[in-house]
Design a protein that fits this description.
Cytochrome Bc1 Complex, Chain D, domain 2; 21 helices; 3 domains; two-stranded antiparallel sheet; 4 strands; mainly alpha
């Protein structure tokens, strides 16, 4: 009995020593520090940069045969899903942090999934205590309030990662009128058969509902056309992000040999100048007349008006609790539970980051078809291996109208797209009920254009 008592006493002593040690090494940042300084300390103490960077600070045991293999694989996967270097640099400079990064940080803290248990069990003090969690969550909230204010939402939803679409943004209506005409003008193509609206129909959800769009001479491109609606909110344009602005994007298709196939903008300007009335009207707004910069600027100004506010989901965010059904609300809860709301953020519910297609499983191996140059995604522009198969996240506004889905147009229905995203990005096989609920939610994202609810005329004709 004495021996047992001694063992129990010894265990209690060890436990007390470990608890005391833990409290010493796991102290939260000082409450007197500014929230960004607190966050810097939390990132450092929790070991985030041991994995979430191109040059991870691997621990000593990474050189060991078995443990080292596991550590290096964890670091590889962490970097693939979230490079925290830009966030840390912005934090140190007092600049705004990407709202996608804010959402990712917030989600793992709320879920308790980071730091990983196998990391903090070895690295004492790396786990987040309650005080640190609250500091980090408060920092995220303060960043959103400062840089991504959600002024249209009801107070209870002001810290959501998604914001309602604005009714309008400031524009020059003279340019908008010209841009509208140019957007629908087939003279921007070499054979006068294709306009911007050919692939981005305003009566078909801002797309053409084809896997690949058809250009001059019946040629087909190699990537699915994204919607032009709400593109104003995207941080870059095109799946690979090669255009920084809407004007840059508008300059691409006219000179693309597969799409509009003009040799130069001089060819386009010559045709437009031959239209005396249009030329006169254009010079009243752009005194130097037709040129690439002015044409694309006018189209950009028009496209900035292609906003689709007042979806049922936006009405819900604005405080109308009856706007969504129980089924749709369940879908929104799943949308957040399965991390969709960490990348599909902002007004357009996407378009704010590049993300890897195939984080949990190899999408392209499973697809079973030959890889194309478009499958490289952002890698086409950067030649950085990390960017291979990484794409600008598509916006989900009006997504019920814009089938087929993904950059390769392989997902025929919303159900297909939801199942695939859950599998390849989250590593989850959704139940039929979960798929139905998420699709129900996604259908609430259809908004209004010029005061009328968007419909897809292709669907009406079926």
């Amino acid at each position: 009995m004495k021996k047992r008592t001694k063992i129990i006493f010894s265990v209690l002593v060890v436990a007390a020593v470990l608890a005391a040690t833990y409290r010493v090494v796991n102290r939260p940042p000082s409450a007197s520090l500014e929230s960004s300084a607190q966050m810097e300390e939390i990132i450092a103490s929790s070991g985030c940069m041991a994995c979430h960077t191109a040059n991870p600070e691997l621990p000593f045991y990474a050189s060991l045969p078995v443990a080292g293999k596991l550590v290096k694989e964890d670091a590889r996967l962490a970097y693939r899903s979230f490079d925290m270097t830009p966030m840390l640099e912005a934090l140190k400079k007092g600049e705004k942090v990407s709202e996608v990064d804010l959402a990712k940080v917030e989600k793992v803290i709320l879920d308790g999934t980071m730091p990983m248990a196998k990391y903090y069990l070895v690295h004492w003090g790396a786990s987040l205590n309650d005080t640190e969690k609250q500091m980090a969550l408060s920092w995220v909230k303060s960043q959103r309030a400062a840089f991504y204010p959600n002024q249209l939402a009801h107070a209870q939803w002001s810290n959501e990662t998604i914001r309602p679409v604005q009714d309008s943004v400031p524009v020059d209506m003279r340019k908008v009128i010209l841009g509208n005409l140019l957007f629908h003008d087939v003279r921007l193509s070499a054979d006068n058969t294709v306009s911007c609206s050919s692939c981005h129909g305003l009566n078909t959800g801002g797309v053409d509902n084809k896997q690949f769009s058809e250009g001059v001479g019946g040629q087909f491109g190699g990537v699915n056309a994204p919607s032009v609606y709400n593109a104003h909110y995207n941080f870059v344009q095109f799946w690979d992000g090669r255009a920084a602005t809407l004007a840059d994007q508008a300059a691409g298709p006219p000179l693309n040999p597969v799409e509009m196939a003009c040799k130069s903008f001089d060819e386009i300007c010559e045709k437009l100048n031959a239209d005396a009335a249009f030329s006169k009207a254009f010079k009243e707004v752009y005194p130097d007349g037709f040129n690439q910069a002015n044409i694309t600027d006018a189209i950009q100004e028009f496209e900035r008006t292609l906003l689709t506010p007042n979806s049922r989901f936006d009405k819900y965010l604005k405080g109308d609790n009856a706007a969504l059904t129980a089924e749709e609300l369940a879908g929104y809860d799943l949308f957040k539970k399965y991390n969709c709301a960490t990348c599909h953020v902002g007004e357009n519910m996407g378009g704010q980051s590049y993300e890897l297609l195939g984080i949990k499983h190899d999408y392209f191996a499973d697809r079973g078809t030959e890889l194309t140059i478009e499958d490289n995604g952002r890698f086409k522009e950067t030649k950085d291996e990390r960017d291979r198969h990484r794409f600008k996240v598509p916006g989900l506004r009006n997504v019920a109208l814009t089938a087929p889905y993904f950059h390769d147009g392989t997902q025929a229905t919303l159900e297909d797209a939801v199942i695939a995203m859950a599998k390849y990005e989250v590593g989850v096989d959704l139940s039929k009920q979960e798929v139905a609920q998420m699709v129900s939610f996604l259908r609430t994202l259809t908004g209004e254009y010029q005061g009328k609810l968007l419909v897809n005329e292709n669907d009406l004709q079926k």
